[in-house]
């Protein structure tokens, strides 16, 4: 039996999995990335994790057919280098794919993490059999990936699918990317947290104060909980986040006419208090024939979507697709 | 030798061409559509034009291999019907493709006109050899089409590429589609005309008044000309139109990472007074790695893009691609 290795290389954590040719994962390990130590040390660390994982199943690298890695950054599919990554500082221009190929002497593919997660949800998850799919991941930041005609849409260099940095309101709040008014600056978990903190500081929400508790760290889920309990100010935050998300999704619907929009990330299970206004805005803003037919569903694969997707992409690659 | 027929069925005009298998057009005719007479009468009229055109070259329908038609409306590629079309009122749910197949007893394809024009520019025009391309047509309205990985992106039902109706400013000016603040309501020829007329009515632009002349019909090109002559109010109109176009294009760049954006339609040759601010806004608003590599060019094929594109799509179809 032949094995494959899938890696999700994030800014804070690395997720390493051993799988078979059908993408079934036998064993996984999650460790801190320590990205600031630079690519060489991180890749050495990865290698030791890989060796550890396969040794536990009594196999060697000779039994492994290929390695798929997805990363939190812009990976140029032509130059095979990381072009930029706020999550992996200092990795710019690192020849990740060639380096991995040299280290493992195996077929290697590298893909952006949100693109890989989109493909994972398409092959194994909430977008199964939906050949035209938008994937959006709503967490600390907002990422995205696009499936058209059953294929991952990469664009010219692999930078496609950047839903989170469409500017939905020029001169809006500052975004981590350096611009202002990106979708991420309104509708990400960190944006909702930021607005919630302002409510607390201004003493405008007793329900939220009660939920967050004194001295505790406020998170977006507290804001959602307060909104569900009838806190009008918290509800305003949730509805504004939902409104701009619906607006941005209407752009993807107009441009791409998808069957389904799959929502992943920590906020995917925020429930109807969030998704109802998202759906309402999307339906109002998108062109009618495309808006009517698209459904909005939560993702299935959770934080395994990236690894599963990169394993599916590796499988396509090994089959010469 | 085998021939093909390409038709661009617009709201006001029909463009009918006879071509060979390489998409070379031998003969064309342009006639009013008279869309309001309904699909049956228009299709009879089309048939007589087709017969007339081929008779002039001494050929018969037996020498014709296929018919490609592009139309100004939402054509559902699954049901093979026109779902809606502001330009062809009363054609909703008309089974255009089946009707044409029955009438001509030939392989027939039907495509949205902007999608066909995008494919035309990709195969024969300004997007040649650029596998990832955005096409936008700037005329009375704003249409668009998308090429990814060398293929026309249709989406689930063929409604993809609707760049003109992305809402770039909620609660903006009314758009012909019934919504408010669509790109078309800011950056189309008719939007620029509307703003120019307001300038004239309010007596705020002597240069524009001089150019338009008393009693003459103001067009967008008068506004561009006045801006070029230093009319500050006209320049504001042009720059606002350019700003929102650049913003909408930044959405397409973030989502699709194209090599090139091809601008067609009447405004494609407005020059640097328009394209400089479009480019500036696009570069500021889009993600850096994708913005850096995309170029903005005028289309080459003019109003033949639709017919040429539908002939190329017909060729793919006949070759079983």
What is the structure about, briefly put?
The structure is a homodimer of 321-residue chains. Chain A has eleven helices and twelve strands.
Record the SSE blueprint.
The structure is a homodimer of 321-residue chains.
Chain A: E1 3-9, E2 13-19, E3 25-32, H1 39-56, E4 64-71, E5 74-76, E6 81-84, H2 96-104, E7 108-112, H3 113-124, E8 133-138, E9 142-148, E10 151-152, H4 184-187, H5 189-201, H6 206-212, H7 220-228, H8 232-256, E11 260-264, H9 272-285, H10 288-293, E12 295-298, H11 305-318
Parallel strand pairs in A: 1-4, 4-7, 8-11, 11-12
Antiparallel strand pairs in A: 1-2, 2-3, 5-6, 8-9, 9-10
Helix pairs in contact in A: 3-11, 5-7, 5-8, 6-7, 7-8, 8-9
Describe this structure in words.
The structure is a homodimer of 321-residue chains. Chain A has 321 residues and is an alpha/beta fold. Chain A folds into two domains: 3-112 and 303-318, 2-Layer Sandwich (Nucleotidyltransferase, domain 5), CATH 3.30.420.40; 126-299, ATPase, nucleotide binding domain (Nucleotidyltransferase, domain 5, 2-Layer Sandwich). Helix content of chain A is 41%, strand content 21%. Chain A is built from eleven helices and twelve strands. Chain A has helices at residues 39-56, 96-104, 113-124, 184-187, 189-201, 206-212, 220-228, 232-256, 272-285, 288-293, 305-318, and strands spanning 3-9, 13-19, 25-32, 64-71, 74-76, 81-84, 108-112, 133-138, 142-148, 151-152, 260-264, 295-298. Chain A binds chain B through residues 74, 76, 83-84, 131-132, 144, 146, 148-149, 151, 153-163, 165-167, 170, 177, 179, 247, 250-252, 254-259, 284-285, 287-290, 293, and chain B through 74, 76, 83-84, 131-132, 144, 146, 148-149, 151, 153-163, 165-167, 170, 177, 179, 247, 250-252, 254-259, 284-285, 287-290, 293.
């Amino acid at each position: 039996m032949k094995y494959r290795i899938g890696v999700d290389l994030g800014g804070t954590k690395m997720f390493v999995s051993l799988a078979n040719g059908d993408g079934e994962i036998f064993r996984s390990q999650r460790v801190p990335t320590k990205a600031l130590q630079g690519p060489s040390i991180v890749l050495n660390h990865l290698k030791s994790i890989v060796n550890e994982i396969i040794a536990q199943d009594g196999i060697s690298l000779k039994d492994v057919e290929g390695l798929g890695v997805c990363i939190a950054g812009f990976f140029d599919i032509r130059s095979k280098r990381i072009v930029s990554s706020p999550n992996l500082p200092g990795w710019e221009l690192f020849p990740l794919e060639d380096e991995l190929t040299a280290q493992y002497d195996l077929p290697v593919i590298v893909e952006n993490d949100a693109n890989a997660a989109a493909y994972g949800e398409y092959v194994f998850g909430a977008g199964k059999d939906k050949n035209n799919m938008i994937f959006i991941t709503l967490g600390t930041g907002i990422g995205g990936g696009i499936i058209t005609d059953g294929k991952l849409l990469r664009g010219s260099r692999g930078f496609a699918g950047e839903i989170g940095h469409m500017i939905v309101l020029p001169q809006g709040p500052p975004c981590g990317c350096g611009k202002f008014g990106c979708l991420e600056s309104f509708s990400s978990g960190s944006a909702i947290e930021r607005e919630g903190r302002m409510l607390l500081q201004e003493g405008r929400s007793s329900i939220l104060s009660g939920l967050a508790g004194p001295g505790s760290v406020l998170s977006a889920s507290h804001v959602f909980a307060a909104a569900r309990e009838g806190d009008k100010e918290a509800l305003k935050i949730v509805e504004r986040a939902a409104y701009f998300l619906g607006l941005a999704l209407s752009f993807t619907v107009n441009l791409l006419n998808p069957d389904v929009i799959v929502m992943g990330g920590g906020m995917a299970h925020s429930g109807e208090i969030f998704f109802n206004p998202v759906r309402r805005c999307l339906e109002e803003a998108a062109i009618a024939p495309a808006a009517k037919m698209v459904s909005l569903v939560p993702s299935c694969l959770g934080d395994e979507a990236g690894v599963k997707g990169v394993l599916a992409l590796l499988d396509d690659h090994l089959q010469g697709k």
